[in-house]
Design goal:
Layout: E1 4-9, H1 13-22, E2 28-34, E3 38-41, H2 48-55, E4 83-85, H3 89-95, E5 102-105, H4 114-124, E6 130-133, H5 138-145, H6 148-154, E7 157-159, H7 168-176, E8 182-193, H8 202-209, H9 217-222, H10 225-234, E9 238-241, H11 248-254, E10 263-270, E11 281-287, E12 293-299, H12 306-326, E13 331-333
Parallel strand pairs: 1-2, 1-5, 5-6, 6-7, 7-13, 8-10
Antiparallel strand pairs: 2-3, 3-4, 8-11, 9-10, 11-12
Helix pairs in contact: 1-2, 1-12, 4-6, 7-11
Bound molecules: nicotinamide-adenine-dinucleotide.
Subunit structure: Monomer.
Protein name: (S)-8-amino-7-oxononanoate synthase BioU
GO molecular function: NAD binding; NADP binding; transaminase activity
Amino acid sequence: MDDIHFAVLGTGGIGRRAIEYSSSKDHLVPVAACDRDGVAIDHEGLDGDELLAATEGNIASDGGATAVKQTGEQQGVVASAQATPTETPIDDIIAESDAIDAVLIALPNLEHDFIPRVAERFAEADYEGVLVDVLKRSRVIGMLDDRAEMLEDSGITFICGAGATPGFLTGAAALAAQSFVEIEEVEIWWGVGLKSGYEDNRGTVREDIAHLDGYDIETARDLTDEEIEAIVDDHDGVIEFNDMEHADDVLLERAGICDAEDVTVGGILDVRSDEKPTTTTVRVTGRTFDGERGTNTFELDDATSMEANVNGPALGYLKTGVRRNRAGEYGVFGPAELMPGF
Ligand SMILES: NC(=O)c1ccc[n+]([C@@H]2O[C@H](COP(=O)([O-])OP(=O)(O)OC[C@H]3O[C@@H](n4cnc5c(N)ncnc54)[C@H](O)[C@@H]3O)[C@@H](O)[C@H]2O)c1
């Protein structure tokens, strides 16, 4: 495979680690990165080490910038010598997108239509390439589908919900389902221990809080850092989530695996320990062609971190997207559609 020149929109907890992770694999060259205040572009390849060092503990995050220690004079990516301040970071990358094969969207989802609108801007600029996001909410998939024709006409291969859940675990569920002719239930249960990564992942924690009873995306967006800390304290740092609106359900349905209503997602987040509070498991229960009822189980090793389980699949799906795009397949795809589909 030729080198893939890719951009990262959002250099928060996820985006930074995507740049770091990409250096462990062949053919992935980060050429552009931005956050809300700045942009770095070098088509020969960004110096990932310098960019990561400059943004260490210094993220222009929706998780509460004031709570994040700053190492440079400026906040976020502009602390890197490769970056410049801008008020139009995404447009600056779109302007250079002719030379960019793929874009990882690691932006917040605190407005449901934010990522669909970003995709639309790439299509309006006639971008021909791959967009991959790690969004979580089921309802956003429909908003992308509404724009499928526009993306297709532009020559964009959009892979949506390609993080851990949805993403990695959705793909695993699709694979586990291949033993069965009929699926009864898909249960996704995740565990994340985030002590050392808590500062870097406050954006994700805020979005997770929106899944708790009594909260939604609007109320979570308006919480102060102190209010978030109070919620974390109320739970002694360990928060359990049930019946989450995670797009694994619609992504499995659109791949023809099962009905969305047969999928449940929940999990436990511990921000005071790096140990996972529970093992991440996907259980797919169904009936085989010869009449047996069974449950196939896929388990992640407790030693694998959230960052590894989001960024590995996201970059893996990005590479798969580039192969599809080069073969002329455009439109919106979910992770389960890129697995075998019996
Ligand atoms: N699918 C999964 O398994 C999974 C797991 C973890 C996180 N996520 C998702 O990943 C996303 C990113 O999470 P995070 O923890 O990195 O968040 P974060 O808040 O740390 O980082 C977000 C980044 O986006 C930038 N940004 C915000 N608005 C912008 C704008 N208008 N223009 C340019 N840049 C902008 C911020 O400056 C920051 O760099 C979240 O939506 C989260 O839900 C998905």
